Protein backbone atom coordinates (compact mmCIF):
# COMPACT_ATOMS: atom_id res chain seq x y z
CA UNK A 1 0.00 0.00 0.00
CA UNK A 2 2.75 2.42 1.02
CA UNK A 3 4.75 1.49 -2.07
CA UNK A 4 1.70 2.06 -4.26
CA UNK A 5 1.11 5.49 -2.70
CA UNK A 6 4.78 6.40 -3.11
CA UNK A 7 4.72 5.25 -6.73
CA UNK A 8 1.53 7.06 -7.68
CA UNK A 9 1.91 10.26 -5.66
CA UNK A 10 5.64 10.80 -6.09
CA UNK A 11 5.17 14.09 -7.95
CA UNK A 12 2.22 16.39 -8.53
CA UNK A 13 1.84 15.36 -12.17
CA UNK A 14 1.62 11.70 -11.22
CA UNK A 15 -0.76 12.45 -8.34
CA UNK A 16 -3.09 14.39 -10.62
CA UNK A 17 -3.12 11.55 -13.15
CA UNK A 18 -3.85 8.97 -10.41
CA UNK A 19 -6.65 11.03 -8.87
CA UNK A 20 -8.12 11.79 -12.30
CA UNK A 21 -8.20 8.07 -13.11
CA UNK A 22 -9.89 7.25 -9.79
CA UNK A 23 -12.44 10.06 -10.34
CA UNK A 24 -13.15 8.86 -13.89
CA UNK A 25 -13.77 5.26 -12.79
CA UNK A 26 -15.97 6.26 -9.81
CA UNK A 27 -17.91 8.72 -11.99
CA UNK A 28 -18.58 6.15 -14.70
CA UNK A 29 -19.75 3.63 -12.06
CA UNK A 30 -22.09 6.30 -10.65
CA UNK A 31 -23.52 7.06 -14.08
CA UNK A 32 -24.02 3.35 -14.81
CA UNK A 33 -25.86 3.02 -11.47
CA UNK A 34 -28.24 5.84 -12.41
CA UNK A 35 -28.85 4.25 -15.80
CA UNK A 36 -29.51 0.86 -14.17
CA UNK A 37 -32.08 2.65 -12.00
CA UNK A 38 -33.68 4.14 -15.11
CA UNK A 39 -33.81 0.71 -16.75
CA UNK A 40 -35.30 -1.01 -13.69
CA UNK A 41 -37.84 1.76 -13.09
CA UNK A 42 -39.31 1.50 -16.59
CA UNK B 1 -35.98 22.85 -23.75
CA UNK B 2 -35.95 25.97 -21.57
CA UNK B 3 -34.90 23.89 -18.57
CA UNK B 4 -31.96 22.41 -20.51
CA UNK B 5 -30.74 25.83 -21.62
CA UNK B 6 -31.09 27.54 -18.25
CA UNK B 7 -29.90 24.68 -16.04
CA UNK B 8 -27.28 22.93 -18.16
CA UNK B 9 -26.10 25.04 -21.12
CA UNK B 10 -25.82 28.49 -19.51
CA UNK B 11 -23.65 27.37 -16.55
CA UNK B 12 -21.46 25.33 -18.94
CA UNK B 13 -20.79 28.22 -21.30
CA UNK B 14 -20.84 31.16 -18.85
CA UNK B 15 -17.11 31.14 -17.91
CA UNK B 16 -15.98 31.26 -21.53
CA UNK B 17 -18.57 33.87 -22.50
CA UNK B 18 -17.27 36.05 -19.65
CA UNK B 19 -13.71 35.31 -20.77
CA UNK B 20 -14.54 36.55 -24.26
CA UNK B 21 -15.60 39.93 -22.86
CA UNK B 22 -12.42 40.04 -20.78
CA UNK B 23 -10.37 39.55 -23.94
CA UNK B 24 -11.88 42.77 -25.34
CA UNK B 25 -10.38 44.80 -22.48
CA UNK B 26 -6.89 46.21 -23.17
CA UNK B 27 -4.78 44.14 -20.78
CA UNK B 28 -1.08 44.43 -20.06
CA UNK B 29 1.36 42.48 -22.22
CA UNK B 30 1.74 38.84 -21.36
CA UNK B 31 -1.68 38.60 -19.72
CA UNK B 32 -3.68 38.74 -22.92
CA UNK B 33 -1.82 35.69 -24.29
CA UNK B 34 -2.78 33.68 -21.23
CA UNK B 35 -6.48 34.19 -21.85
CA UNK B 36 -7.41 31.07 -23.73
CA UNK B 37 -10.59 29.01 -23.57
CA UNK B 38 -8.76 26.51 -21.38
CA UNK B 39 -7.93 29.12 -18.72
CA UNK B 40 -11.11 28.79 -16.61
CA UNK B 41 -11.32 25.00 -17.09
CA UNK B 42 -7.76 23.63 -17.14
CA UNK B 43 -7.60 22.33 -13.55
CA UNK B 44 -10.95 20.58 -13.57
CA UNK B 45 -13.01 23.57 -12.42
CA UNK B 46 -15.91 22.26 -14.49
CA UNK B 47 -16.32 19.65 -11.75
CA UNK B 48 -17.92 22.30 -9.54
CA UNK B 49 -20.70 22.28 -12.09
CA UNK B 50 -20.92 18.48 -11.94
CA UNK B 51 -21.20 18.75 -8.13
CA UNK B 52 -24.05 21.23 -8.63
CA UNK B 53 -25.85 18.95 -11.09
CA UNK B 54 -25.57 15.94 -8.79
CA UNK B 55 -26.70 17.88 -5.71
CA UNK B 56 -29.60 19.41 -7.62
CA UNK B 57 -30.68 15.97 -8.83
CA UNK B 58 -30.56 14.57 -5.28
CA UNK B 59 -32.55 17.56 -4.03
CA UNK B 60 -35.07 17.24 -6.82
CA UNK B 61 -35.62 13.56 -6.07
CA UNK B 62 -35.71 13.82 -2.33
CA UNK B 63 -37.18 17.17 -1.36
CA UNK B 64 -38.34 19.42 -4.14
CA UNK B 65 -40.58 16.85 -5.80
CA UNK B 66 -42.00 15.50 -2.52
CA UNK B 67 -42.51 11.95 -3.65
CA UNK B 68 -40.63 12.09 -6.93
CA UNK B 69 -38.43 9.32 -5.61
CA UNK B 70 -41.53 7.17 -5.27
CA UNK B 71 -42.50 8.03 -8.81
CA UNK B 72 -39.44 6.22 -10.10
CA UNK B 73 -41.10 2.97 -9.06
CA UNK B 74 -39.12 2.33 -5.90
CA UNK B 75 -35.73 2.22 -7.59
CA UNK B 76 -34.64 5.60 -6.25
CA UNK B 77 -31.80 3.98 -4.30
CA UNK B 78 -29.92 3.31 -7.54
CA UNK B 79 -30.34 6.95 -8.56
CA UNK B 80 -29.23 8.22 -5.16
CA UNK B 81 -26.22 5.88 -5.03
CA UNK B 82 -25.19 6.88 -8.54
CA UNK B 83 -25.42 10.58 -7.85
CA UNK B 84 -23.49 10.24 -4.59
CA UNK B 85 -20.68 8.49 -6.53
CA UNK B 86 -20.74 11.22 -9.21
CA UNK B 87 -20.64 13.82 -6.43
CA UNK B 88 -17.66 12.11 -4.79
CA UNK B 89 -15.77 11.75 -8.09
CA UNK B 90 -16.36 15.39 -9.04
CA UNK B 91 -15.35 16.61 -5.59
CA UNK B 92 -12.18 14.50 -5.71
CA UNK B 93 -11.15 15.87 -9.10
CA UNK B 94 -12.04 19.47 -8.23
CA UNK B 95 -9.84 19.32 -5.13
CA UNK B 96 -7.06 17.42 -6.94
CA UNK B 97 -7.01 20.07 -9.67
CA UNK B 98 -6.76 22.82 -7.06
CA UNK B 99 -3.99 21.03 -5.16
CA UNK B 100 -1.95 20.13 -8.26
CA UNK B 101 -2.48 22.90 -10.82
CA UNK B 102 -0.88 22.22 -14.19
CA UNK B 103 1.23 24.89 -15.89
CA UNK B 104 0.49 25.70 -19.56
CA UNK B 105 2.29 23.48 -22.10
CA UNK B 106 5.87 24.46 -22.85
CA UNK B 107 5.52 23.93 -26.58
CA UNK B 108 2.84 25.29 -28.85
CA UNK B 109 0.66 22.81 -30.65
CA UNK B 110 0.27 20.41 -27.71
CA UNK B 111 -3.31 19.17 -27.53
CA UNK B 112 -4.96 20.79 -24.47
CA UNK B 113 -7.04 17.65 -23.90
CA UNK B 114 -3.90 15.53 -23.69
CA UNK B 115 -1.96 18.06 -21.59
CA UNK B 116 -4.69 18.97 -19.09
CA UNK B 117 -5.79 15.55 -17.79
CA UNK B 118 -8.04 17.05 -15.11
CA UNK B 119 -9.85 19.15 -17.70
CA UNK B 120 -10.50 16.15 -19.97
CA UNK B 121 -11.82 14.04 -17.10
CA UNK B 122 -13.90 16.96 -15.82
CA UNK B 123 -15.55 17.20 -19.27
CA UNK B 124 -16.51 13.52 -19.01
CA UNK B 125 -17.78 13.82 -15.41
CA UNK B 126 -19.77 16.97 -16.16
CA UNK B 127 -21.29 15.37 -19.26
CA UNK B 128 -22.29 12.27 -17.28
CA UNK B 129 -23.74 14.33 -14.39
CA UNK B 130 -25.66 16.60 -16.75
CA UNK B 131 -27.10 13.63 -18.67
CA UNK B 132 -28.06 11.81 -15.47
CA UNK B 133 -29.61 14.98 -14.02
CA UNK B 134 -31.64 15.57 -17.18
CA UNK B 135 -32.81 11.93 -17.13
CA UNK B 136 -33.97 12.27 -13.51
CA UNK B 137 -35.61 15.62 -14.17
CA UNK B 138 -37.69 14.31 -17.04
CA UNK B 139 -38.16 10.77 -15.72
CA UNK B 140 -39.36 11.95 -12.32
CA UNK B 141 -41.63 14.64 -13.68
CA UNK B 142 -44.95 14.33 -11.86
List keywords for this structure.
heterodimer; A: 42 residues; mainly alpha; elongated; B: 142 residues; 67% helix
Brief digest:
Helix content of chain A is 88%, strand content 0%. Chain A is mainly alpha-helical.
Overview of the molecule:
The complex is a heterodimer of chains A (42) and B (142). Chain A is mostly helical and 42 residues long. The model of chain A has no long low-confidence stretch (mean pLDDT 87). Helix content of chain A is 88%, strand content 0%. Chain A is elongated and about 45 Å long. By secondary structure, chain B is mostly helical. Helices cover 67% and strands 0% of the residues of chain B. Chain B is built from six helices and no strands. In chain B, α2 runs antiparallel to α4, α2 packs parallel to α6 and α4 packs antiparallel against α6. The longest helix of chain B is centred in the middle third of the chain and has 24 residues. The two termini of chain B are 17 Å apart. The chains are: A mainly alpha (42), B mainly alpha (142). Chains A and B meet through α2 of A and α4 and α6 of B.
Amino acid sequence: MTTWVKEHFSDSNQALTTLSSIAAVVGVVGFVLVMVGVFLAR
Amino acid sequence: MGWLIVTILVPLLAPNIALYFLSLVPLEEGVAEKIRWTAPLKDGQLCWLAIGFSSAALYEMGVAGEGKLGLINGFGGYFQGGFILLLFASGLLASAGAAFPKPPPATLGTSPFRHYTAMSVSFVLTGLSATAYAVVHFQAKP
